[in-house]
Amino acid sequence: MRTPRRPGVAARARVAGGRRGGHRGSRGGARDRAAERGLTLLEIMIVMLLMGLMMGVMIFGTGQLTASRLKRATTMVAGAVRVGFTRATATSKSQRLVFDLDEQKLWLEESELPMLVQSKDTIATGGAAAVTEAERAAFQENDRILKGPRAPKPTYHAVETLGFSNNTGARGPHELGRGLRFREIQMEHDDRPRTTGRAYLYFWPGGQTERASIELAPIASSSDDDTLTLSVAPLTGKISIKNGPVPLVIPVDDQGASDRVDRGGAF
Asked: What is the tens place of the pLDDT at every residue in 124-156?
């Protein structure tokens, strides 16, 4: 019967070395995994930093873009006022600029009949024929209260004219601009500032319009600092543009009513 041979010294050394190598391999793998985890955290921190920088640039850029759109819209409205003022004299017909405060649009209209506005008008049309449902309802209520014959009310129809075109060149109402709104509008014939519905600025042959205050602002902002106001002079049609809301002031004397007083910001 043979006795089993014990492994030699060399064999035992190889086994021990293999075990020690295995332990070293395990420790090395753990260190590698730890290094990988640390690298991933570093990458996350870099990505978060870049995202923060990009968000800051986007917010700043959006503010600059909105301010640019607001100035462009102000220029468009000022141009529309000048076109209405000039067209009334050139055609010898009454014109009016329509401001839709719900849709944030504006367009020019013309009438074949002479138009005399009613001061302190509660319906906003100034005496012209009603167009919207709210205006018709208000006229019906007035007719119910006040009986008797009525003079025919002038009607207006939209017109297209050179010098007043929207950004796309398309016909029809002109959009104020994305992200912008008519904050508040008041004409001299209005009994109060308009914030909804429609407002109308009238022009007459011979070169005359109404005193008016037209405020534009971003939709997302309620700050007075983001508002631009166009003030219209009645005798010359001159437009003054000022920062912040400027309420309409009805003059009480000849000096206050004069368009010759330079109040700055003229367009």
From this structure: 677 677 777 777 676 566 655 555 556 667 899
What span, in angstroms and rounded, lies between the C-alpha atoms of 159 and 65?
31
In the chain, what are the helix, strand and coil shares in percent, each to the nearest 5? 40, 20, 40
Please indicate, yes or no, whether the overall pTM of this predicted structure exceeds 0.85: no
Question: What's the N-to-C CA distance of the chain in angstroms?
Answer: 122
DSSP 102-165: TTTEEEEEEESS---PPTTBSSSSTTSPP-SHHHHHHHHHHHHHS-S--PPPP-EEEE--TT--
| Tens digits of residue pLDDT in 48-74 | 888 877 776 565 545 677 888 899 999
Q: Domains of the chain (ranges plus CATH)?
A: 88-257 (3.55.40.10)
At 146, list the tokens: 């006040």
